[in-house]
Specification:
The structure is a single chain. By secondary structure, the protein is an alpha+beta fold. It has two domains: 173 residues, 3-Layer(aba) Sandwich (Peroxisomal Thiolase, Chain A, domain 1), CATH 3.40.47; 144 residues, Peroxisomal Thiolase, Chain A, domain 1, CATH 3.40.47. Helices cover 33% and strands 26% of the residues. The strands form five sheets. Strands 1-7-6-4-5 form a five-stranded mixed β-sheet, with helices on both faces. Strand 14 and strand 15 form a beta hairpin. Oxa(dethia)-CoA binds next to helix 2, helix 6, helix 7 and strand 14.
Length: 328
């Protein structure tokens, strides 16, 4: 019997942003047409966001996912046919069913391997990477494509200025392979369903109709307070599991929702602010896509290099949160 691999390792990253970029000034104009006021100053000061990308009509999560996936496959030097597991983290799937992962598999021109979606909202990618790592170490898969892909512009309420300026669309992907060397060092996932109502799209489909509100609702302050607490605790927890300390972390890549939350996490961990990967300024909050998008941008910018220790963190609706510590 072949021995089980000790580790899984990221061998390639990729990402994709739809070409339509909206600056904060564009959001000011868009909201003004609806009789609402916002400003570049407010958005930058409260969130750090300066721009986001939105898909055009007819473009779905799988269309973004396939571009990010192809780029990650190229970076890993792999063909789609070599992949034996596809997980897509998304809260904005192409259809109610089948999964966006199955649609992605077909768009990649392959068939046969396991493919499923994972729904943990903004923690989705960290959840998906944890599941792929466990499946690889259990011998269920050897080469996984793990994707976060979102079209949040489809579920934004453009009459609610407190939420519609915050989110964007995009996709990020990694190829994760069985390895004898690290790799993923430690993972940890959490959820607390008592907070379902603070960040949700409460609508559903029933009897041929949309029942309830199909647009995003968020109690920003409640999410903010929970996020700053759990991002510190889960980071400390994975460091302890891996026998490392915060001083070992070369790059912190938390969910890109709000620069104030991200900087507060870095401060609490006593990390040099220069070690924080920031893409929220240019991407907004892309939910499950935010962490792999930020990772790929950091890799391509020459920040994250082979051998660096990287902390990925997710937090969001559910309430869910988690972290993955890895040697890149
Ligand atoms: O992806 C999952 C994770 N999500 C998050 O991490 C989001 C967490 N929450 C946040 O990032 C912040 O709470 C927000 C950015 C959403 C809001 O920032 P805040 O500092 O908590 O602002 P606030 O909700 O306390 O609102 C302050 C003021 C209010 O006016 P009054 O009541 O003080 O007069 C809002 O009406 O800002 C007003 N406001 C705006 N003004 C201009 C809210 N949205 C806007 C806007 N433009 N777009």
């Amino acid at each position: 019997m072949t021995p089980l691999p000790l580790y899984s390792r990221i061998t390639g990253t990729g990402s994709y942003l739809p070409p339509r970029r909206l600056s904060n000034a564009d959001m000011v104009d868009l909201l003004a047409k609806r009789g609402l006021e916002t400003s570049d100053e407010w958005i930058v000061e409260r969130t750090g966001i300066r721009a986001r990308h939105f898909v055009d009509d007819g473009v779905n999560a799988s269309d973004l996912a396939v571009q990010a996936a192809r780029s990650a496959l190229t970076a890993a030097g792999r063909q789609a046919a070599e992949i034996d597991l596809i997980i897509v983290a998304t809260s904005t799937p192409d259809m109610v069913f089948p999964s966006t992962a199955a649609i992605l598999q077909h768009k990649l021109g392959v068939a046969g391997c396991a493919a499923f979606d994972l729904q943990a909202v903004c923690s989705g990618f960290v959840y998906a990477l944890t599941v792929a790592d466990a499946m690889i170490r259990a011998g269920t898969a050897t080469k996984a494509l793990v994707v976060g892909a979102e079209v949040f512009s489809r579920i934004l309420d453009f009459d609610d200025r407190t939420t519609c300026v915050l989110f964007g669309d995009g996709a990020g992907a990694v190829v994760l392979e069985a390895s004898d060397t690290p790799g993923i060092l430690a993972t940890e996932l959490h959820a607390d369903g008592s907070h379902v109502g603070i960040l949700c799209v409460p609508g559903t489909v029933a009897g041929g109709q949309v029942l309830g509100d199909p647009l995003l609702k968020m109690d920003g302050q409640a999410v903010f307070k929970l996020a700053v607490g759990v991002l510190e605790s889960v980071a400390r927890s994975v460091l302890a599991k891996a026998g490392r300390t915060a001083a070992d972390v070369d790059w912190l890549i938390p969910h890109q929702a709000n620069i104030r939350i991200m900087q507060s996490t870095a401060r609490k961990l006593k990390l040099d602010p220069a070690r924080l990967v920031v893409t929220v300024d240019q991407h907004g909050n892309t939910s499950a896509a935010s962490v792999p998008l930020a990772l790929d941008h950091a890799v391509r910018a020459g920040q994250v290099r082979t051998g660096d220790t990287v902390m990925l963190e997710g937090v969001g609706g559910g309430f869910t949160w988690g972290a993955v510590l890895l040697d890149f």
